[in-house]
Amino acid sequence: MTEKKSVVIIGGGPAGLTAAWELVKDGGSEQYDVTVLEATKQFGGISRTVKHNGNRMDIGGHRFFSKDDRIMDWWKNVLPLQGAPSYDDKKLGRHHDLEPGGPDPETTDEVMLKRHRVSRIFWNRHFFDYPISLSPNTLRSLGFKLTMQAGFSYLKSMVHKLPEDNLENFYINRFGRKLYSMFFEGYTEKLWGRHPSEISADWGAQRVKGLSIIEVLKNAFSKLLPKKRSNKEVETSLIEEFWYPKLGPGQLWETVERNSRELGANVITDAHVVEIRQDQGKISSVVYENAAGERTELHADEFISSMPVKDLVNALDAAGKNEENEHKVAVPADMTKVANGLPYRDFVTVGLLVKRLRLKNTTDIPTLGNPPIVPDCWIYVQDPGYKVGRIQVFNNWSPYLVKDVDNTVWVGLEYFCAEGDDFWNMSDEEATKFAIEELTRMHIINGEQDVLDSHRERVPKAYPAYFDTYEHMPELVEYLDSFGNLYCVGRNGQHRYNNQDHSMATSIEAVNNIKTGKTSKRNVWSVNTEKSYHEKK
């Protein structure tokens, strides 16, 4: 009988838990001794579900959709697709392609719902379809003059291409300068705290990819045709249907954690990694600290890290400076400089439980509520007059996120900020008051009298940012890859603005390397780097 290979996984978010499950499933626990170290008591990272007084918040909003069939099948195996109508399906007479033999959301919690995505943009006191569509409402809201200006500006951008050495030029090449200035410039600065001209075009390449005016128009015209295109044929930013766990995204990751534990994975919470030790060019152990400040050293053969790159390098550096560590190896000074210069954008979500929204449902999509609410999952606040970046309407993600879904509306206001800045440091009361004032000014609620409950949630290191020392990431990747038994996975583990499915794919690739003995990590780092945004003729 061969000895088990030990693997330590840092982080209990989508990347870390995917790695754990991939190692222990199908009898893998007989070959691998797996330990997961999670710094908090919750699972799912930014994909967790926050529970408050019977209502649930989705941090950041998570559509379960991927063009990678492996991921879609993976999700479906954890939480099977609904085989009967959900509460809102029944009340609204809504029909989906239900899964034969699938569970009934009204009688079981472990189920994935099929959802319809509606998102709009709030700009200049008008609502626009998101993404931009050829609807009469769009033209009416823009007005004849702005429509003409945007059209001619776009035609100019098709002829005169700018060098794509920053995010501003990336957007102008795809949408024209007028639409860029209206819908992208202010919002991007609000999101990142930097002007788009200071941000790498890599961010647009990953998040927008093939989306352009041409794709928007193609998508709009395709809806007029009898044949329906599948989600795989549509740019990701234009997807209209997706899956969603009944009790929010955290439910899926809590299920994966439980399943992994039941098959033998050792999961330790409140385990904050403070040192990562090396010996003869390999990682030899990690040292973690628990809530009581006690330290434990864990030796292993392989290490999978989804902790922020900055923290990973500082943990390596701390081990190199610890006098008690017999194998002290200093991290090169230029590598610590790159790591500590990597920027992040943090955000705060303020959840408000309100009696009603003043917004009328002007769409033809029926909704719950008395009176009926708007059908949006997200409302993007592109208007620079407001600090809030997006508003989530949790009722529309899943009726089961809201305790009294017929008589209350549970919304989440997302504010982009920097950890430690004035907005981050506001008290719960101050942040709530600020959010209520903004919603009132937008004519969405009638002030404090409409608010029944609230909850503020801080989310550090939510978005890895693409400026400052980011341009030196390839050098840092080369250094980290020099440790043959260390795999960096996930959004923060790779300092890449991955979606949930991309983070999972990095872990699937890493585990495959461990199982097959593959030494190159190019497959792990190359997830979500394809440049599929080449110009269309």
UniProtKB/TrEMBL annotation:
Pfam families: Amino_oxidase (PF01593). One of its GO terms (cellular component) is cytosol. Residues 86-108 are annotated as: Disordered. One of its GO terms (molecular function) is UDP-galactopyranose mutase activity. Residues 87-99 have a biased composition (Basic and acidic residues). This is Protoporphyrinogen oxidase.
